[in-house]
Amino acid sequence: MYLIETKALTKTYKGGVQALRGMDLQVPGGCCFGLLGPNGAGKSTLVKILLSIVRPTSGSATLRGIDIGKAEARRGVGYLPEGHKFPPYLTAEGVCRYFGALAGITGKELDRQVHEKLELVGLGDWKDTKLKGLSKGMAQRVGVAQALVGDPGIIFLDEPTDGVDPVARQGLRFVIRKVTEKGAVVFINSHLLSEIELLCDQVAIVDKGEILRQGTVSEIVAGVQGSKNLVKFHTDELPEELWSTLEERGAERKPDSRFVIEIQEDAEISGLIDELRAAAVMIYAVEPQRMNLEDAFIDLIGADRGLQVEKREVA
Ligand SMILES: Nc1ncnc2c1ncn2[C@@H]1O[C@H](COP(=O)(O)OP(=O)(O)OP(=O)(O)O)[C@@H](O)[C@H]1O
């Protein structure tokens, strides 16, 4: 059973905007799932439908196998909205208590949950501070903590690292991993591709209300049109004769005694190293130049919009 599943989900807003055009999505448990797409792609609409904030026009969706039309589907669901505005007069603890109580948690269990989740996001010492006295990144961590109170099995986080500094961001990655290890799904909406690349086991790229591709980051990156397997070498100056043979095979000189060459298989790297060493050339570094999620995203969205997209240059 998938923890989140949608079938042919569509949404046409009043005025005729088709925000979703038949979305089929399956998200298993124990995974961090990233939803990526440009502005207006339909990401928030999808999350709002799953949380019953917006009604779909057609199609169906389930959370833990329960139809989203039933209130029961939302039991055990945590949510951090984008740009949340929790009352500034509440303390960090107050926010977590408020949302924990709304989820039906009471008494000692609420005390335990609130304490545990604030510690988890590194705000145990700030529990009595009012939100207006916390930095943006700290308030965001309070938002993550409240979404985790009650140990929900499905957690939606909209732009969770917005305003969070790099050290705290790493802390949040640790928190998310801990949660998914226990079998929960963390569903992330983010514009930060590098963050999604670090965090998510599964990614879906959406545009104009449709999923263009879904899979692991490496599966999505492997599908980039015209993606090349490039390797960058950093060596001593090459003898001219050797350079000529490499150039004939498509090698390209780069600054500071570096060159880049396309290979078909990783096994070719050893052969190249042997050739360089046979000519007594010192090798300082060999770096495969992998495409990243941003390249894949730009490639897919560009193709979807009929744009010619320049591939990233290897420096
Ligand atoms: N309440 C609404 N009424 C009419 N149109 C809407 C409404 N909400 C969203 N839309 C439109 O639906 C489309 C999808 O919007 P949505 O907010 O779901 O996209 P998004 O991918 O979350 O975008 P962003 O990254 O900018 O938040 C857009 O064209 C948007 O203008």
From TrEMBL:
Q: Name one Pfam family in it.
A: ABC_tran
All copies of the ABC transporter domain together span 4-233
* Molecular function as annotated in GO: ATP binding; ATP hydrolysis activity
Supply the alphabetized keyword list.
ATP-binding, Nucleotide-binding, Transport
Q: Which InterPro entries match?
A: AAA+_ATPase, ABC_transporter-like_ATP-bd, ABC_transporter-like_CS, P-loop_NTPase
Question: What SUPFAM superfamilies would the database entry show?
Answer: P-loop containing nucleoside triphosphate hydrolases
Stated family: Belongs to the ABC transporter superfamily.
Q: What is this protein called?
A: ABC transporter, ATP-binding protein
